[in-house]
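Anyone else keep sequences and structure tokens together like this?

Example one:
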Amino acid sequence: FEADDGGMRSNGSWAWGTPTYPDTLEAQSGVNVWATNLDGDYESNAADWLLLPCNVNLAALDNPVVGSVGWFDIELDWDFAYQVVDHDGDGVFDIMAEWTGSSEGWHWGYGIFSEEHAASENAGVGMLLISDATVTAAGLYLDDIFISSGPAMEVSTEAMADTVMPGESSGHPFVIENTGGLPFSYDVMASSVGDG
């Protein structure tokens, strides 16, 4: 978002530029962000949208995800920011993720599209801030928004069953290959079955 606003569409208090509030907040990269308000708290009774500049053909991507780095301070359990998608062009957006409270710093976040959403050739994707009539806060700040192919995992193994006596160990080699566009993490767990 350095050269321009990325063509994002917005209403309400969403604004693009250099944040000046809170006074210690700086963009995650460069100097410009999209925010619910660059120089103050978001408004009461808000229903403010920020939408990607055009609809997206999610079906052309493998395991599509939407991601960004975000910072938020939103009235806990009363006001909410939502990541939303309209997968069939009917104007009804489904919630993919929600935030309330404080992030206490910039954090990367990813939204994984459901199978139904991922099949869309014309998906609208965006953010929504909803607030009540009383307390407000600094709001939601976004930087480095993207949609891409997400992580995918292929595991190739041989059968991993073995009989091991107490005090013995057994090892089984396997390969995990990330065939998607983003990193992923995994845990390998072993289980044992006793004889009663």
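And example two:
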Amino acid sequence: GLIILRIPIIRLLFERGSFISKDTQLTALILMVFAIGLIPCGCMSLLSQIPMAFKDSKSIVRIGVFSQFIAIGLNFLFVRFWGIVGLALTASVLPIFVSSLYFFNLKKRISNLKNIILDTIYIKIIFISFVMAFVCYYVHFYLEKIIIQDYLFIGVILFIGFITYTLMSFLLKIQECKIITDIIKKRIFGKLLVES
């Protein structure tokens, strides 16, 4: 969603005064590159917590130091070819390397780590996210011909994305959806019972 809506979001937030259309295009490109790294960054953040649970501070330090060298190397390489976009690319690519290092380090301790990560719930969520992105991508082409105002355009796309994600979650029977539904039912019916 962030990748699809990058231009209208930047245009709505920043395009005024000396910040012209050319700046919007460059900033939107940087935002897209950053957005690509959100999932690897989340994986890195999750995997980095596990060695702490094992009190394995040595592995954390080793991976931390090694990742800094990788970051420096990637920055030199990417900035040379792509300039400021290269910095964003490093921020997106680095978590992939670091997540891999944590994964192989943890695989020694947890034999079924691969099965845990590839659990059905994660596969379902990734699938739902791709379906939502696909729907938003094609709807945005249709809507941009009709809706001129950026804030309305962004709002409609986000709403359609939310509805798609919610419906797909219920269709694929994501357990958290049932928990949320039960909580809402208890709150609504609980209030009705109290009032009656």
